[in-house]
Amino acid sequence: MFGDLLKRLTAPAPEAFPEPDARLALAALLVRIARSDGDYAEAEKARIDKIIAKRHGLSPFEATKMRGDAEALEAQAPDTVRFTRAIKDGVPYEDRTAVIEALWGVVLADGVRDPEEDSLLRLTANLLGVNDRDSALARQRVEAGA
Question: Which InterPro entries did the record assign (predicted)?
Fold first, then answer.
């Protein structure tokens, strides 16, 4: 089902992703961060659905379906380092900084800033080429409800 996208994710020199693949890869990254603490909570799933719907102009049903596809892709995707590097090479910087904000939204969705999620988010931001300052500003915007 995700053969072409998985090939692009594991290619030595990833190319820019077509829009549908970029959307799915970024949604899978949201799922990966939510699953990182071993507790994939309903609040996190709901936040992912909300982010996907808002970001892509989807209905709640379409967003839930995309999350389901993203969950399947995340389970098959390579390790986080290769996965995020491929996204970095295939997705424009503006979209990557927006994704860090979305990732903070997922991390904070259940009301707990879990050390495992926090650590993975910091690694992910670095691998996506987003500096600590921009990541901290993204977290502050999420905490402020912006």
Answer: DjlA_N, TerB-like
Residue range of the domain that includes 94 = 17-143
d(CA 35, CA 40): 5
CATH number, domain at 71?
A: 1.10.3680.10
Q: Is residue 29 part of a domain?
A: yes
Q: What is the 3-state secondary structure (H, E, C) of 70-131?
A: HHHHHHHCCCHHHHHHHHHHHCCHHHHHHHHHHHHHHHCCCCCCCHHHHHHHHHHHHHCCCC
pTM of the model: 0.79
Whether the per-residue pLDDT at 117 is higher than 60: the answer is: yes
Q: Across residues 74-103, what is the average pLDDT?
A: 79
